[in-house]
Amino acid sequence: MRHYEACLDRHGDSHRGVDWPNPQDAETRYAVMLDLLAGGPDDASLLDVGCGAGHLLEHIRRHDRRIAYTGLDISPAFVELCRRKFPEQRFLCLDLLADDGLDTTFDYVVMNGVFTERVGLADAEMWDFFTRLVERAFDRCRLGIAFNVMSKHVDWERADLFHVSYDRMAEFVGRRLSRHYRFRADYGLYEFTTYVFRAPNTA
C-alpha cells in the first residue's frame, strides 16, 4: 500500500499515480479485464479489487458500458480520491484478507495490477499473498473473476515483478478455484490475464 500511495503523492491522479508506465497499456489492460463480462448478463455487477484511482470506472464510462460497478481498495488515500471523483458511486476501503467486511457477492470480480509487482516480497511470500487473496475474491463472485500477473515468457525477468508460469497458475486455479479457466496473452504486454468461471463460459 505504501508503495502505491507514494506513487499517488508523486504523480497525482494519472497512470503513473497507480504505477502504470504509460496510458496506452493501461487502457489495454482495462479492456482485457472487462472482456471477462462478455456473454454475461446486462447490467452485471462488478467488484474492482485494488481500484486505485478509479481509472477502470473512467474507462467504463468512456465506453458507455452498462455495469453496476463497486470499487474496493485497502488504501484510504485512493478510496478518498475515488469518492471525491465519483460521489454517487460505491467505494469500499477494506482489506479482504484481514477482515472481509463484505456481505454481498458480485457477478464478476477483477483485480488489475494487484499481482504484477512484488513490492519487496520474496517470491514465496508473494505467492502466498496471491493465492489467499484470489481465493477470497473468488468467494465473492457468482460468475467469474479476472486477474493478471507477469509472464515467464519474456526476454528476462525483473526481480521486482511477479512472474508466474502457465503450469503453476493452472495447477493453482484448477485445484483451488475451478476447472473452467482461460489464459489470455494476446494483447501485446509481458503479462497474461487469467479468467476463471464457476461454470463453462461459451462467450
UniProtKB/TrEMBL annotation:
Residues 47-116 form the Methyltransferase type domain. It comes from the Bacteria. InterPro entries: Methyltransf_12, SAM-dependent_MTases_sf. This is Methyltransferase type 12 domain-containing protein. It comes from Thalassobaculum fulvum. The lineage of its organism: Bacteria, Pseudomonadati, Pseudomonadota, Alphaproteobacteria, Rhodospirillales.
